[in-house]
Amino acid sequence: TTATHASRIHVLDPRLTNQIAAGEVVERPASVTKELLENAIDAGSRRIELDVEQGGARLLKVRDDGVGIGEEDLPLALARHATSKIESLEDLEGVSSLGFRGEALASISSVSRLELISNASDDPRDGWRVVAEGRGMEARVTPAPHPRGTSVSVRDLFFNTPARRKFLRTEKTEFAHVEEAFRRQALSRYDIAWVLRHNQKTVHQLPPGDSPAARERRIASLLGKNFIEHARFIEREAGALRLSGWVGLPTHSRAQADQQYFFVNGRVVRDRLVAHAVRQAYRDVLYNGRHPVFVLYLDLDPDVVDVNVHPTKHEVRFRDGRMVHDFLYSSLHHCLAHTQPVAENFVGE
Ligand code: ADP
Ligand code: MG
Fold first, then answer.
1. Boundary (domain end) residue, out of 148, 180, 206
2. Would you identify the family this protein belongs to, as annotated (predicted)?
């Protein structure tokens, strides 16, 4: 019987191995959004547009004006473990691009109908389209004109993995997650112009601008005027560590920890050490159960932080965690100690 009969060992076909890998990183439309936007950033784009239909379950399309992919490289773009971003272990250890695993497009295209169109030249009549076909996911490349840059369309996410599709929530909920993924990327690069549309309606249109005023305008449009009116700009340096951003004052705490953005070298992370340092710094100025708001950027030498901890790269490991923790705590503590509403009122009267 089948129960006792040993199966022969065989190598799984590429589509199946990619679908298995997708289980780790492709959870919902928002995870696809993150990967596609990161690729567009890594390509050096100046303008990135995201079109969403039905919360992303029907369509996610990212169009960028980055370097594009040459015809010779296109067959590899959708292949697993194929990347242009690192070549060696040394590269990995000092990696500054957002991607490096060479897995996202392979994983996503194994669980959706993915089409990539790209042009690496300045002639808008050039351009190629690639899709991965069949169980072997063979690349099929055909001509398709496109201005310099890349468009990736992901249709019908999880159409072939019903178990996954069952976990998709309502259009409204999925779009809220997609918008959050967009918000994080838009807060990571002020020099890039961003557009987000849902069902053909413009949700965000963010012009580029690196000046403090332009940054504050972007934050206000992504997180609300209230945020920026109750936040204090911070900028501190210690050795190779640099912290900057906006620290919410105790006058604008929230019931949920839903407006807390911490970027390490341009990448949003959720890190326990960072969370602890922040909590400590706010401990004396916030009521119990209230959550601070902040948008903070920590920049440090890529060599002293390991981003290859988890496939989603939401976690990092600092070489000297203690030092990072103390720097964060003292910077925030110092900033908050001088901006307490009590002290301000006292001075004002
Ligand atoms: P990774 O980003 O880890 O390298 P991906 O699967 O996300 O892996 O992408 C594979 C490769 O396809 C990238 O290394 C890059 O060379 C190319 N690529 C993907 N998206 C873009 C894009 N928007 N513009 C230019 N090249 C891209
Ligand atoms: Mg990538």
1. 206
2. Belongs to the DNA mismatch repair MutL/HexB family.
